[in-house]
Every structure is written in structure tokens, then in C-alpha cells.
## 1
Amino acid sequence: MYELMEIIDHKEVFIIIEKTEQVKVLVEALQFIKKFSGKTVIIKYGGSAMKNAELKKTFVEDIAFMNLVGINIIIVHGGGHSINKMLKKLSIEPKFFNGLRITDEETMEVVEMVLAGNVNKGIVNDIQLQGVNALGLCGKDGNLLEAKKKKIDGKDLGFVGEVINVKTSLLKEILKNSIIPVIAPIGKDNLGNTYNINADEVASAISKSLNAEKLIFLTDVFGVYSNINDHTTLISEMNVDQALSYIEDGIITNGMIPKVKCCIEAIQNGVNTVHIIDGRVEHSLLLEILTPNGIGTMFIK
């Protein structure tokens, strides 16, 4: 009988220790909740976090948590995988130049249908199932994103654009009502032409226009490495000068270059910190925002 009581006592002690550790985590998070409550955080949502069912679930849980503690969230999403699936169904061959989708008129129709339709409304629905309000938009709604045609190395990519103006008053009004804007990266010019815009660039443009506290890119990598072949060389923090020199020296290469350039531009234009984090890690957003060390790579002035 005594031995049984001893086992029960040990179990109770273990439970108490476990619950104490949980409370410590919550108390630790409280300082960051206080710091970021009322601040605006822009999140570029893409990669595996959009395709894996469990990661989608933890993403919207993080979004709901952040919203409920008073952080103003704006989501800009991609959806290249879904676009390619639809193009395949329609027997349209996807074409790219320097990582950007060549977007003729037919492809633009598919891009708009997929991004502003199924993908956008799916994200909104997932968020609202967590008990918080979200509003799906593309850049054409309310003249949110004014765009112009973008050329790369003098090449015309069709209806590929870049942001020249963000209607911040619309976003501020939405945020004031504790609603999460979910934005598809599509804009238009003053003639009514519709443009497909890189989602990273849209997220950066919005963060600059609002002087956001944070801009976070969810990716399929842990962050920026000084040696891409050695995952022990993750750079946890870098300033603008370091980032520029890493690009010049060939340390940052390929598809990471335009993403890092978006980070640099955001920092140079009033955003406090920018982060590249791995969306394949469950609850990566809360790990970044509500823990002392965060994850991934943080860019500072």
C-alpha cells in the first residue's frame, strides 16, 4: 500500500512540474504579447505551410492566437502550386523567366481565378473556423494595390506587375475592426489592366506603406546560411550592410536573392524587423514572435 502511495505521489509531482513548466512558458510569452499588442505584423504565407494539412492547421491557430492578443495581422499569400495544377487541367504550359511566371492574357485569367478565388477564400474560411474574422481581398478590391507592368532585364513577361501604391486607409479601417485582411497578390493599373505580382514584393510593399512592426516570410528553409550546404551555418541575425555584402560576395544566391532584397527594402523603409522563417515547423509564427530567441533569420537596420 505504501509503495502504491509513493508511485501516486511521484506521478502527482511529475504533473505539477509539467504544469509549472507550462505556466513558465505562458509567463515568458506575456512580455512579448505586451510588446506586440496593437502593432502590425505582415505575414507572407506560402510554401509547404500552404500545402500540408497539419501545417495549415497550426498556421491558422497561430494567426487566431495573435489576433486574440491584440496583434494586427495582415496576410499576403502565394499559390503557385495551385495555379500550376489548374493550368495543367486546362492544358496550358506554365512558363517562367528568372523565377517569375510569364503571364499572358489566358494565364492571367487562371491566376486571378485561382488566387483571388479558391486559394484566398480557403484561407479566410480556415481562419474563421478558429473563431476570428478575416476578409479576403485582392489588390483590385477598393483599389488596394496600384500596379504597373514590370520588366526583368528588358524582357516583357506579359501581365506581370509591381506595386506602385498601397491604399493604406482601407487596410487600417479593416484592422480597426479586428478583422484580418487576407490578400491575393493581384493588382491593377489606372487603365484597369490586371497584373500578377510576386507575393513577396506585395508583402514588402504593404509593410513599408504601414511602417509595420514586423514582416515575416514563411518559407521552406530555416533561414539564410553562410554556407548553403552546411545547416550549422544558419545566420540568426544580420543587418542591411551584411545582407548586401553577402549578395555581392555570392553567399546569398539564386532564389534567396529577391527574397532578401525584399527584406532589405522593407528595413530601409521603416519596418522594424524582417524575418525569414521555416513554415514547415509547426507553430513557427508563435515561436518567432513569442519566444526570446525566435527562429530563422532576422534582418535589422
## 2
Amino acid sequence: MENLEQTNEQVQELIQTAYTLGMSYGPKVVLALLTLIIGLWLINKFIRGLNSNLTSKVDATLGSFVSSIFSVILKMVLLISVASMVGIETTSFIAVLGAAGLAVGLALQGSLSNFAGGVVILIFKPFKVGDLIEAQGYIATVSEIQIFNTILKTADNRVVIIPNGALSSSSMVNINQESTRRVDLLFGIGYSDNIDKAKSILESLAAKDTRVLKEPAPMFVVSELADSSVNFTVRLWVNTADYWGVFFDMHENVKKEFDAQGISIPFPQQDVHMHQVA
């Protein structure tokens, strides 16, 4: 009988304890669950909007990557907030996360720098796929812009991979961003040749080439009296796509026309005086 009474008392105590805990933590748990559900819904809605916005403005891969990072961060903050609402001590947990984040950041310092460089390139667009650029000692066409690297392809079909961190923080020349380019040429004639005749030939060849633009006007000037030649500087404006065609054709046509018109193209010469010692 006494054992039964003790058992009843223990049950009553357990019920009272459960009731006390339920009254104390029940509202907190319910509120925490509501916060978790509503928070996850808001985060997912925000991430969908962010991903849609980024995809329309920058590279789709980068947009998805940035959205996933924001999703992880926001969900971690939400979980910590929910745990704190229930009464769980989160100070040590936050300290551990901070230490882990610092360690990961130091370990991935180079990768994070390249990622930030990729974001800068995709947002500010100093170049785009298909542009011919000069960077890091290479002149090549942009084949692909990735999250951490930019892929270039040279004229002889070599693939060059440049980290975005280095590419975004150093000087870079976008060669064909503008619709027109200037072709700079240098031709030399002999000192005994007629300057006016040579200039007339150059002007005629440029006028015959329909790829040479009328504006800005072509320039033909004597730029140097060199050791063995009188040098002409010729500057022609062309559409960017016609640059190399005009560059190579002018050299070939000038050589042929100078030969036909009797204009010499001198090469370096050196006089050697020999003295005989008795």
C-alpha cells in the first residue's frame, strides 16, 4: 500500500514537473516553430527573387552561386535565433562558427579573391565573351568567364586560364571594344628617292582600299630621317574587324607598288674602311 502511494506521489510530481515545463517552454517552442517556418518561407522567397535578379544581370552560374551562399548564411542565422528563443545557449556555438569561418577564410584566401574578382568582372563588364584583350602578357580572345577564372584563347588556338583576382586588379587592354581602330604603319624609302612620289603612292593605295575609313582622315607624314632611310608614318582608321586585313595587305601592296614605281626600300648599311699598314 505504501509503495502504491509513493508511486502515485512520484507520478503526480512528474505530471506537475511536465506541466510546469510545458507552461514555461511550450509557448517558446511554439513561437520558435512558427518563427522557423515563417523564416524559412521568407528566406526561400528572398533567395528566389535574388537568384532571378542576378541571373538577368550577371552570369547564371555566378547568380546561382551567390544565391546559395546567401541561403546558407540566412538559414544559419535563423537557426541560431530559433535556438536562442527556446533557451539554448548560443554564445559558444557562435564562437565556434566564427573560428571555423575564419579558418576557412584564411585557407581559401586566394579562391575568395578570385571569386570577388569574378563578381567585379561580371558586374562592371570591362570585357565580355568574344572580346580581344591584352592581359597578363597575353593577347587573346575571351572564351569563357567563370566564377574563379577567365578562359582565353590565343590566335594559335592555345587556351590560357587567368585567375579573376589577378585579372580584375591589374591593367588590361580591351582591344576590340570600340567599333573602329587605327592602323599604324611605318615605311622607309631611300634618301635618293622622291619623297612626293612615295607619298603619292601611299595615298593612292589607301584610297583604293574600301576598308579604310574617310573619317578620321588618313595621315601620311615623314616621321624620321633614319640612318639608312627616310621613314613615312601612315595612320589609317578602319572598322575593328578589318584591322589585320588592312595591316597585312598594305605592307604587301606597298612593297609591290614601290618596286613597280622604282622606289627603293633600303636596309641597314654600314661602311667599312680598311687601312693597310706598311
## 3
Amino acid sequence: MARISIVKLSEIEGVKRLDASRYRKSFLKLEKNLKKITIIRKLGYLVAEPVRTGYIPRDRDIYQDDIRIHFLKTDNLREGVIDFENSDFLPARSLSESDYLKFKNVTVTISGAHYDVIGRAAIFLDYYPQSVTNQNIAVIRTDENLLNPFYLTIFLNSKYGREQLWMLSRQTEQFNLSCREVEELLIPLFDADFQQEIETLAKNSFDLIEKAKSLYSQAEKLLLEKLALKGFQAKYELSYTANLSKALGVHRIDAEYFQITYDSFMGCLKEHSKIAKLKEFILGFQKLKTLYEPKVGDFLLTKDAMPGIAYIVKEPVEGITAGSILILKINENEIDKEYLALCINSIIGKLQIEREGGGSTIAHWRPEQIKNLQIPILYKKVQEEISSLIEQSHETKQRARELWEEAKRKVERAIENEIRK
């Protein structure tokens, strides 16, 4: 059914927009409610410098001696966090000092294929690596005498911030808004004490996220130490030889499969632990169920696009699995599920998958390849110790999320109280 919203021309004076999507009933109600608030201010009056974006320099080639700088795009921004592990890089020589993100800069996505990409906001923290952004991310430096950047980050991620960004965005080939439009955001300017309270909640959440990362890192470190793989670096040779009998035995003739580093890695693995194939721990190799909704405790494994990511469902999921994900039933009497997931996600799984792909990540991981993935089996006590660290990491991450949601609720309730006045 078509939705119709009728707006008088006199009511859009100064908006300078005639596209229908700007005048959805929900957007009009949002704008009307925010303008009721006496302490509302436009972001443009609360910044220390004009909102800007990053850019893509002409010279992006990275040479051996170049200093690599994280290059952040929309996919690297999520709610409140920045994914540095999957970022691209730029050479430092192609950048100037003004390009770099600074401590307390607030970053927000302003361009994307659909609404959900718009409005992902995160603050740049002092322990983050050197980074720059592309043109699809706005960078905001607040006047901290007026607007606390941590409070702004929480506000932008609240429904009142996110929906404003959706309202201000325009749909052409994709959804986007300009830096000047970002400056039109209406910000409820609560007193310094309230903003500080929100900052404290946000910082506590960030601290817990770092603790969760540390716990997971400890688990991975313990795994690699027990397998004498700590510090292992894959070294790819330009030339090497392999016997014909070996090639025939594995039914492979592509040169990349026989890189010496793979045999060196597997040799070290077998020297320090018993090895078993993944299929030995699967209770029936499951076909993906149509419209299957994952249950808590399910062992999920990706097989396409980005194969080899293992995850154990920790909380109820409102949704169904894609065809690229397998749900495996693991024999927990034989192996700890968290330990198994870590093995697959670590260098142990990654190098084996890389080898199967001929030196690059395979787009599709066949069932036979999955079943033959080799898993090192450590003593049960060690598996439990590793599993405990991973579970602590998940619990800590959950507490971080709870604090983050508490901060958002406080901001939203405060805004709703002002609207009702």
C-alpha cells in the first residue's frame, strides 16, 4: 500500500529540499518534537572547526619501506566501534598531518547503499592506531566547552541521532548527505554534568571492550604456546620443489599448494599435538536447514565468501542463517566447542584454508575440504582453560554492550522528558 504524506509549502521554508523522502511522517514528527526542546542547538554552532570528510589520495601504492596508515571506510565503522583488523592501508608519504584522525574526533558514515549504512558513529580514542578516512565518513571535532564528544557519539547512535541522519540524507544512486547537512543536526545541549555522566558510561564500555579483546588474545596466545607456534610467521618462498608422487597423492599440481611454509607449519603442529580431522567431531554432517533460526549453543561455520569463520551462538537471534553458513552439531565429549572454534579462527585454520585456495582465500569451501580440516588436540584441561578465557571474553563484551545501551537509554529518556515539558 502506498504511503502518502502531504506537507504545505509554507512548512518547508528554509529546508531547500523537495524530494518526498525528506517529508515522511515519522521524520516530520521527529523534527517537530526536537524543535520543542528549549536547549536544542544545531551541530554547526557546537564544533571547533567545520565538519570534514577524508579523501582518496592519488598515490595509494604501498612499498616495502612505507609506513602503513589505516584507511577507514564505511564497512570499518560499526555502532561505537572501529574495525581496524579489516581496514585497508595508505602510505604515510601520501598524507598530510591534517588528514589524520585525532583523539576525540567523532566519525560518522554519511554515504551508503541503504539507510542502515548511514549514521554509524564512533569516537576516535587515544590508543587507536594512526588512521585516516575516505570521503564517505564525516569527521567532527566538537567545541568541548559546549559539547562533550563522548556524549555526541552516544547521541548519534541513539534513535534521535540516527533518524535525523536518515532524514537529512538524500537518495540518488545511493543514500548520502554532505558535511554541511551534518552540521544541521539538532543536538539537545544538556548540562555538563549530564554529558559527563554519559562520557563515563561510554568510557567504561570501551574499557570492557579492550578487556574482552585482551582475554581473547590470552586464549589464542595460550593455544599457540602449547603448540610451539608462538611467533610463527608464514614465509613464502619464490622458488621450491615438490615430488611428483606428492602432487599425485593430493591431486594438486598448482605451485602455491606446495609452499614450504605450509609443510613447515603442519610439521610443527603434528610434532606438538595429536591431530584429528574435523569430521571426527561432527555428529552427522549437517545440511543447511531452510529458514533455520540459530539457537543458543549452535556451532556456525562459514563456507562461502569468507570461509572458515567459526562462531558459537551466545544469545537468541532474530533472523535466519544464509546459505553460506553451516550449522554443525559437535560431539562435546570429544572436544570443547570454544576451543574448536578458536582453532578454526586462528592461524591454524586460516593457513589450511589459504593452502586449499592455492595461496589465496577460497570463495567456496567444499564439504570435503571442511571435513578434512586438521585440528590439534590438546589435553582436556588445557582446552578448558582456553575455553574459560574465551567465555570470560564474551561475558565482558556483553557487559560492555549493556553499558553502551544504558548510555543510549539515558540520552533518549532525557530527550523525551524535554519533549514532554
